[in-house]
Design a protein that fits this description.
287 residues; alpha/beta; Arc Repressor Mutant, subunit A; Rossmann fold; 2 domains; 14 helices; 7% strand; globular
Length: 287
Amino acid sequence: MLIAEQLQAQVHFTPTDAALAQVILHDPHAIVGQSMQTIAQTAHCSHSAVIRLCQKLGFKGYRDFSLALTQELSVQKVAPDDVNFPFAANDTLRNATEKLTTLSLDAITATKARLDFPKVVQAVQILVHAKRIFLYGRGDSSLLVQGFANKLNKIDRYPIFADQFGETSWNSTNITSSDCALFVSYRGQNQSYQQVMRYLKAHQVPTILITGRPRSPLAQGTDVCLEVLGDEFDFMKIGTIASQVASEYLLTILFAGIYAQHYQENLANLQAKQTILTTGPLAESGQ
């Protein structure tokens, strides 16, 4: 969840927390350049109150909070005006097309800005060396993992859909430490996934999570957390447009990393199969 969303939600906030939140939300761009002492004076509270709020938001202290807020504000400069309702009722189809194009491009740009490349490399290595890849994704995310699986099928990797036929828990019991699990969960709040994640961690199974909520419960339990655009509301939105685009972009990056590990071998395999499909025994009749 974005810092601004947490400050607006005020979950378990004290009156002092709420007063601090209002000071920060009033002009967040000014806050990043201010000292903790200045903020405390403006909100008429102590330094320790500022630190407690930062910790309540998931940060070690004010410095970590300030750095995260700076990054969030810089990303929002390229983010669309409203990712939840990117077009209006009075927009023409042409206008809606322009806005959706901008939304998609900005979602990719914002996700790229958040990429932690050492973590991306770590995720690729986990996927490359895994004996089997188990994919977790429900609802809209199930479409994303299916698309990712289709790409992997082209290079002779056949992932297992852990959620298929409602057999999530059963399939999870078959995973070993030589395999890996890839979760796609925008909110990172799924209770059954948290249970599975704990089970996999106990059995030393490498896990990867793609999410828009890097401080969610699911994110805390994974080995590698990769963040996508996190500006969408959980429910009040036209659809999961920006997050779908951003997540697919990140999955494609992972596929590119896997493909590149054996690029020449994959290319030779592609050429051989193309021959079979165009002029060989599996060529369509009439060709």
